[in-house]
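Bench log, entry 3. Co-assembly request; chain sequences pasted below exactly as received.
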Amino acid sequence: DTGVSQNPRHKITKRGQNVTFRCDPISEHNRLYWYRQTLGQGPEFLTYFQNEAQLEKSRLLSDRFSAERPKGSFSTLEIQRTEQGDSAMYLCASSLRGQPQHFGDGTRLSIL
Amino acid sequence: AQKITQTQPGMFVQEKEAVTLDCTYDTSDPSYGLFWYKQPSSGEMIFLIYQGSYDQQNATEGRYSLNFQKARKSANLVISASQLGDSAMYFCAMREGSESNFGNEKLTFGTGTRLTIIP
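Structure output for the full assembly:
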């Protein structure tokens, strides 16, 4: 099964540390999305890539957050100087134009 | 105003019965898409069904159907003959705007309904 893959599944870190998550989309999908899901809520859009170009960022994405998709394949999401409020599930999705987004299993981030 | 409203935080349904999960949406864009996703306790979001704003017929996928009432701006999910494995969170989501070569097709999600199937 070549679905969307996210690593790690879980990340526990101390406040103030930097963390990086990776997303490997379905190989032929040129669109890639990051969402954040907090407890009891639906996912919220963070950012969108088409191939290697980051075309939109949500205002939820503060200066401490950065995302890349260097060769239009896998993507990374980095959070610098983590805060308690960053604790959430980070979901990656990929798609083709006009097709439903396929999601990975997510990375659950816990800040101590 | 909320773009996607799911008013049922939780539902309990007897196995083999049909269940309807409510979803209303708010948009001024004439072109949009509506999606339902299932999220089991393991966390992955599983795509279930899609309805485009210009689709004349209600979408169906196996045991899932979407009751699309455009004038009421509702897009309820109907699951027929529920099974124990249907127990999960269900999210309604909307894409505003038409499909485009470079447009962001980001989804806006509701807060979800937790469905529990009772044996």
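Chain B touches chain A at residues 4, 35, 37, 42-47, 50, 91, 93, 99-102, 104-112 (CB under 8 Å). The first strand of chain B starts at residue 4 and ends at 5.
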